[in-house]
Specification:
8 strands
Length: 198
């Protein structure tokens, strides 16, 4: 079972300290809840790291939210606009998720058919666990992520701008930067996780 869709997505992400993260969460009246919303991100690349070299990301995500578990495969392809990607998304069943996570076998679907990108020969390069909380700031969804990687904990906050829906990228970016300024944080786009967590 593969359900497919595409979006044009811009993601703004700011790395913060634990203290900064909790200060902004307190301001927006949210907190982390380990049992409510967390996910595992599995990152894949070719043997020659061709995806990373071309700024592509191939990610398998297992999302555990309340009592529901879902599996999502995403291929991100860079566009001419900074930090904006054309995303190919497929929702998988558990069997296809396990075949990819443990056997490097891409499921049938649009992403697998893009062999000019990955050659149908990918392997797992890393996995991280992310605990996520979402808050509303004005009319914008802000996500707070606590990232576990090789015994270390990292914190990020960010927002996604779905440009497929005609949302103003500049207005949303200004709003996000404005939130950071309230806490004396200068916006600096965090390095992509597929590169940073290796």
């Amino acid at each position: 079972m593969v359900k497919e869709n595409r979006i044009l997505d811009k993601e703004l992400r700011q790395e913060v300290t634990k203290e900064q993260c909790h200060e902004i969460m307190d301001y927006l009246m949210v907190h982390f809840t380990d049992k409510k919303d967390y996910h595992y991100n599995y990152y894949f690349d070719t043997k020659n790291n061709n995806l990373t070299k071309k700024d592509f990301t191939l990610r398998l995500r297992t999302i555990v939210k309340d009592n529901d578990i879902s599996y999502h495969l995403t291929l991100k392809i860079p566009t001419i606009d900074k930090d904006t990607y054309l995303e190919y998304n497929e929702r998988l069943d558990e069997r296809d998720m396990r075949l990819l996570a443990y056997n490097n076998k891409l499921p049938d679907g649009e992403i697998k058919e893009l062999t000019s990108i990955h050659g149908d020969d990918v392997h797992l390069v890393n996995m991280i666990k992310v605990t996520r909380t979402i808050a509303l700031y004005q009319d914008m969804k802000i996500f707070f992520d606590r990232i576990s990687h090789r015994g270390q904990t990292h914190y990020e906050l960010g927002t996604r701008i779905d440009q497929s829906k005609g949302v103003s990228s500049k207005a949303s970016t200004d709003k996000f930067i404005g939130l950071l300024k309230k806490f004396n944080i200068t916006y600096e786009q965090a390095e992509r996780r597929s590169i940073r967590y290796r």
